[in-house]
């Protein structure tokens, strides 16, 4: 039995407890708000989620450089870069809607789980209003779904698989980068022109989603022009020695090898293929050829001399405006400010991330609100120019950008380590446009935009 | 209480208090202060703390008690996750069926893996489990793409059937009878902002139950048998006792814990990718257990918290933030300090973790728990010396009465 004793100490104690109990309901704030992470102060926070470790760390580092440059330009620093060439003129270097742009960065480790954890901490802890970046389709799809659920805009970085704006498309997600279908559609006519319309192709495909969609895209586009597909073999993503996959190619009756590989995979498989003498070989009375559907400067650097003479496609190249004229304006402005800040030309990953940040800032300014649903509305069907790719459309049906695709070839005698590819041709946007319900993109649904309210 | 002795009851109550008050404890710094960078009290990370805590508790039942080092526990986590997401796609977004099925499926899969792998012990056992886990990863990554979604993984979609949900066809969110896992209530006091997340408390509740079960296992005759296996399995076998059913039971129990963790991960964040089963994920739980203290009750939970904190907080510090911190220094010195610290932050968090791990293994072989015990001992000894001449180390300890 305890005795009830009233003394000063217990009186104060219980008084505080009662007071706290009474005050509790009033200091709990409900989650009622206009939209998630509404910027309240004089700054707005963007989240840049890039791979800083793992196989795509180089791309990630270049993406982060581009993001930093974009933020600098948005805040009025530097020479303004593409702000001077962008067809929309609402951005004036005073941040976004008068708020200074700040950013947080995170490491995706090229793993969906890590990428989502990093994106979540940006949303929940740092109050990021938009997430951008990423360097693999698996990560892009995972983070895009997260942003849709949370009610944040996702501006995809480097992601090439059809799924991102196909079966996994989301209303809050936008992709500026091109995709597998576009690679196939852009490459096929040039392959037919360069190598003839009666070729027999052998595909080596990385055994995961991006590999599948790229193989399908290249296959369908080339077969439509008369090519024949002899065989296609899936290779494990972790493979580093492709000799056993290359060896059967010469005796298969094929005269073209298509390497649906990216990053280190592509560097290794291409090196093996060249070592096996495929470049000098002849099959069916024709010279044997190798094709790499998705090219990047960083891969070209890794493959060294082996890349010489090999055709592939790119989203953008830093020499575009110099070689093909003012249609691609914006390119030089971007290359200049990037080069001045970092001392070398930007990669296509850097370009797409820079442009995505600018497009987001522009959309917010035109919508006069950070509300994700207003931003979605401003971006859907938005036509712009002066961002380095020529006239571009952000299609409302699937949030994919439509623009010209660059077909490149590895240089025989590169002058320096940044000038490894030459532009063969630019495939105009009409040739790479497809219907939103194209079978390669079927099965997805944008759904409604989510503002997290 | 609940069949626990006083010491264990106290430990359980401590864990309950820690998990329930986590939003306060993990947010020691006001939002606007520069140290807010070190706050860990946001929903996603708190959820991760308790989920990986469950994973590590389960792993510890196998590794800490029997000494069998499994290098493939991430596979069970992954199987649990896939089971959970399929329940959400097919049945309902309510987390209950997802969690139950994740435990069942992980249990079945661990029964299969354990039944085969436990024929060997030591390094051979480790390699077998590692092989199974890598096989599961490879299957999920490519071969089983129709079931697992391959590299992109699986997510809940609008078009999923969800036959038990009345609102099928709408965008569903993981919920517990209508209470959404992402529901937050925030409490603002002065400069502090505390967030209470529904999903976190669901996960924390599961962890407390898991912890309680783990205590009971540790203190049971079954747990004693597992310890006997650890100390000398051969001798145990010579006494005519078949130890395999015990190891298998421990293996399946820890597999079910991993499955529960996987199911909870899906409940908190409705997405699964195959990287969850990669061998580094299996290695991570080994690190957590060793870092915290293998064979101790609460150690693995601390280890899990430590690693997840490093991964999520240290990795997000970048040079810009460092420059802010050290802006009070003269320019040259500031740059120098930032350059020195640079390799240990951001992407260098692995390096920091590695150093911490090495220090712990070298100086505290018993993990963080040993560190705690040493500190506790230090204080006790000081108290003891005050009471005059009694040396606790040279006195016979009072023997308990025969029960």
From TrEMBL, chain A:
The keyword Transcription does not apply. Residues 43-411 form the Leucine-binding protein domain. The keyword ATP-binding does not apply. It comes from the Bacteria. Keywords: Amino-acid transport, Signal, Transport. Belongs to the leucine-binding protein family. This is ABC transporter substrate-binding protein.
UniProtKB/TrEMBL annotation, chain B:
This is Branched-chain amino acid ABC transporter permease. It is found in: Cell membrane. It is a multi-pass membrane protein. CDD domains: TM_PBP1_LivM_like. The keyword Nucleus does not apply. The chain crosses the membrane at residues 49-69, 74-92, 98-116, 123-144, 198-218, 245-265, 285-304, 351-372. Its main location: membrane. Residues 382-403 are annotated as: Disordered. It comes from Hoeflea alexandrii. It comes from the Bacteria. The keyword DNA-binding does not apply. Keywords: Cell membrane, Membrane, Transmembrane, Transmembrane helix.
């Amino acid at each position: 039995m305890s005795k009830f004793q009233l003394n000063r100490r217990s009186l104060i104690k219980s008084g505080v407890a009662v007071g706290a109990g009474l005050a509790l309901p009033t200091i709990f704030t409900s989650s009622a708000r206009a939209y998630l992470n509404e910027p309240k102060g004089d700054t707005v926070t963007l989240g840049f989620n890039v791979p800083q470790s793992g196989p795509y760390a180089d791309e990630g580092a270049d993406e982060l450089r581009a993001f930093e440059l974009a933020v600098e330009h948005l805040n009025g620093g530097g020479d303004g870069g593409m702000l001077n060439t962008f067809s929309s003129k609402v951005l004036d270097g005073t941040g976004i809607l008068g708020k200074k742009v700040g950013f947080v960065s995170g490491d995706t480790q090229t793993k969906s789980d890590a990428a989502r954890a990093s994106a979540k901490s940006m949303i929940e802890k740092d109050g990021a209003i938009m997430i951008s970046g990423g360097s693999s389709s698996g990560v892009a799809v995972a983070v895009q779904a997260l942003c849709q659920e949370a009610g944040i805009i996702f501006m995809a970085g480097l992601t090439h698989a059809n799924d991102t704006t196909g079966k996994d498309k989301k209303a809050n997600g936008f992709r500026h980068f091109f995709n597998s279908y576009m690679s196939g559609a852009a490459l096929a006519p040039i392959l037919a022109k360069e190598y003839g319309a009666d070729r027999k192709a052998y595909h080596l495909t990385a055994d995961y989603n991006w590999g599948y969609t790229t193989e399908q895209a290249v296959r369908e586009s080339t077969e439509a022009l008369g090519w024949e597909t002899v065989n296609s073999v899936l290779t494990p993503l972790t493979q580093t020695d492709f000799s056993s996959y290359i060896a059967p190619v010469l005796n298969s009756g094929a005269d073209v090898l298509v390497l649906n590989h990216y990053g280190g995979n592509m560097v290794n498989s291409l090196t093996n293929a060249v070592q096996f003498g495929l470049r000098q070989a002849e099959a069916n009375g024709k010279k044997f050829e190798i094709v790499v559907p998705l090219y990047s400067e960083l891969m070209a650097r890794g493959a060294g001399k082996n890349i010489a003479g090999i055709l592939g496609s790119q989203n953008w190249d830093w020499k575009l405006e110099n070689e093909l004229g003012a249609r691609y304006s914006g390119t030089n402005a971007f290359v200049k400010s990037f080069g001045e800040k970092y001392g070398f030309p930007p990669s296509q990953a850097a370009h797409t991330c820079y442009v995505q940040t600018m497009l987001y800032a522009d959309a917010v300014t035109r919508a006069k609100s950070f509300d994700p649903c207003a931003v979605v509305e401003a971006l859907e069907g938005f036509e712009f120019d002066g961002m380095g790719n020529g006239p571009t459309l952000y299609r409302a049906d699937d949030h994919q950008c439509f623009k010209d695709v660059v077909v490149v070839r590895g240089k025989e005698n590169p002058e320096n380590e940044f000038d490894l590819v030459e532009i063969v041709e630019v495939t105009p946007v009409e040739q790479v446009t497809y219907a939103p319900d194209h079978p390669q993109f079927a099965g997805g649904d944008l759904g409604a935009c989510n503002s997290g309210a | 209480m609940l069949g626990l002795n006083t010491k264990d009851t106290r430990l359980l109550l401590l864990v309950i208090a820690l998990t329930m008050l986590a939003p306060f404890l993990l947010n020691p710094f006001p939002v606007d202060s520069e140290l807010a960078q070190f706050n860990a009290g946001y929903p996603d990370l708190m959820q991760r703390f308790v989920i990986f805590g469950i994973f590590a508790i389960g792993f510890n039942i196998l590794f800490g008690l029997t000494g069998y080092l499994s290098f493939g526990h991430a596979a069970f986590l992954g199987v649990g996750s896939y089971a959970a997401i399929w329940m959400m796609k097919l049945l309902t977004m309510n987390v209950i069926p997802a969690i139950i099925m994740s435990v069942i499926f992980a249990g079945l899969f661990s029964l299969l893996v354990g039944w085969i792998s436990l024929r060997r012990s030591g390094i051979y056992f480790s390699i077998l489990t590692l092989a199974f886990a890598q096989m599961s990863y490879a299957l999920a990554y490519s071969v089983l793409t129709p079931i697992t979604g391959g590299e992109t993984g699986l997510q809940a979609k609008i078009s999923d059937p969800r036959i038990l949900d009345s609102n099928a066809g709408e965008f569903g969110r993981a919920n517990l009878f209508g209470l959404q896992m992402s529901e937050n209530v925030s409490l603002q006091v002065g400069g502090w902002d505390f967030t209470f997340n529904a999903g976190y408390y669901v996960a924390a509740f599961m962890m407390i139950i898991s912890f309680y079960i783990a205590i009971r296992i540790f203190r049971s005759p079954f747990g004693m048998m597992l310890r006997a296996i650890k100390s000398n399995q051969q001798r145990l076998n010579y006494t005519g006792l078949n130890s395999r059913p015990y190891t298998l039971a421990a293996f399946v129990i820890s597999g079910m814990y991993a499955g529960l963790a996987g199911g909870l991960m899906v409940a908190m964040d409705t997405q699964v990718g195959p990287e969850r089963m990669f061998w580094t994920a299996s290695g991570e739980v080994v690190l957590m257990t060793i870092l915290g203290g293998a064979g101790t009750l609460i150690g693995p939970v601390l280890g899990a918290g430590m690693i997840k904190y490093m991964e999520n907080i240290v990795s997000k510090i970048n040079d810009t933030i460092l420059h802010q911190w050290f802006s009070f220094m003269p320019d040259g010195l500031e740059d120098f300090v930032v350059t020195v610290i640079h390799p240990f932050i951001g992407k260098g968090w692995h390096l920091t973790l590695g150093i911490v791990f090495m220090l712990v293994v070298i100086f505290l072989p018993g993990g963080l728990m040993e560190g705690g015990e040493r500190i506790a001992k230090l204080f006790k000894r000081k108290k003891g010396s005050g009471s005059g001449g009694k040396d606790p180390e040279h006195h016979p300890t009072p023997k308990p009465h025969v029960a």
